[in-house]
Design goal:
The chain is mainly beta. It folds into two domains: 2-47, SH3 type barrels, CATH 2.30.30; 49-251, Alpha-Beta Complex (Fumarylacetoacetate hydrolase, domain 2), CATH 3.90.850.10. It has helices spanning 64-69, 142-148, 151-155, 200-208; strands at residues 2-8, 11-17, 21-28, 31-41, 46-48, 56-60, 79-83, 88-89, 95-96, 104-105, 108-114, 130-137, 140-141, 161-168, 178-183, 186-192, 218-220, 229-230, 235-240, 244-251. Strands 1, 2, 3, 4, 5, 6, 7, 8, 11, 12, 14 and 17 form a twelve-stranded mixed beta sheet that branches. It has a five-stranded mixed beta sheet with strand order 9-20-19-15-16, with no helix packed on it. A hairpin with a 3-residue loop joins strand 2 and strand 3. It is globular.
Length: 253
């Protein structure tokens, strides 16, 4: 099932995507989820970020080749950091180039969406807490990250966490799902979820031992190799098998 959050006219709602459009639901997938009889055709739908998380927990260096290209070791346990909720935007939203940076990079990632309150979750029980998966772009001001080592600043600017286009509830990241990033149509990243050093279950166990995860919170699971500079005006596309394509343009304002 592909679940989307959308704007149609003046209304914002959740729904289930199909070929004809979006079947509108009342409530959210986490509270009072109930279908209506309304189907909004695709030409009247504006897709939004599929969730509004209280926090985004991201994992660094979770692909061996990405760690290698940065000249850094793979950690012995998940290396986590936070992106603020205000960094989240949806499909087709602009990513805004901050004036204090001169080097913005794309990072295509699989994102796990939490479905219920998660605290001290064991890896073997993780499946009961993951609602589904979506695509993410962990946009990064690489020059700032390299200069001061403050990952939160380098990755936490407004609009630096595009999510979407949908939450796929029937997906297994242990399968060899392709993750691809294109910039203006050129492939920059190409990897597989099966290449992650730490799987979703291990990450959830590690993170939930530190902090409580709430319904709608998001875990970014790391990026494959091939991260590179993006210029203003260029279109970034993150495509993941079974989920779809997340498109966002980098702009200067």
């Amino acid at each position: 099932m592909k679940i989307v959050r959308m704007k149609a006219g003046d209304d914002i709602a959740y729904g289930v995507a199909d070929a004809e459009g979006v079947l509108v639901y009342r409530g959210s997938p986490f509270v009072a989820w109930e279908p209506t009889e309304t189907v909004v055709p695709w030409d009247s739908v504006q897709l939004l970020a599929p969730v509004i998380p209280t926090k985004v927990v991201a994992v660094g260096r979770n692909y061996v080749e990405h760690a290698d290209e940065g000249g850094v070791p793979v950690p012995d346990e998940p290396m986590i950091f936070l992106k603020p909720a205000t960094s989240v935007v949806g499909p087709d939203a602009d990513v805004v180039y901050p004036p204090i940076s001169n080097e913005i990079h794309h990072e295509a990632e699989l994102a796990a969406v939490i479905g219920r309150v998660a605290r001290h979750v064991r890896a073997e029980d993780a499946g009961g807490y993951v609602f589904g998966y979506t695509a993410a772009n962990d946009v990064t001001a690489r020059d700032l990250q390299a200069t001061d080592g403050q990952w939160t600043r380098a990755k936490g600017f407004d609009t630096f966490c595009p999510l979407g286009p949908a939450i796929e509830t029937e997906l297994d990241p242990l399968e060899k799902l392709a993750i691809i990033c294109r910039v203006n149509g050129d492939v920059r990243q190409a990897g597989f979820t099966s290449d992650m050093v730490f799987g979703v279950a291990e990450i959830l166990e590690y993170v939930s031992a530190v902090m409580t995860l709430l319904p709608g919170d998001v875990i970014l699971t790391g990026t494959p190799s091939g991260v590179s500079k993006v210029e203003p005006g260029q279109l970034m596309e993150v495509e993941i098998d079974g989920i779809g394509t997340l498109s966002n343009r980098l702009v200067k304002r």
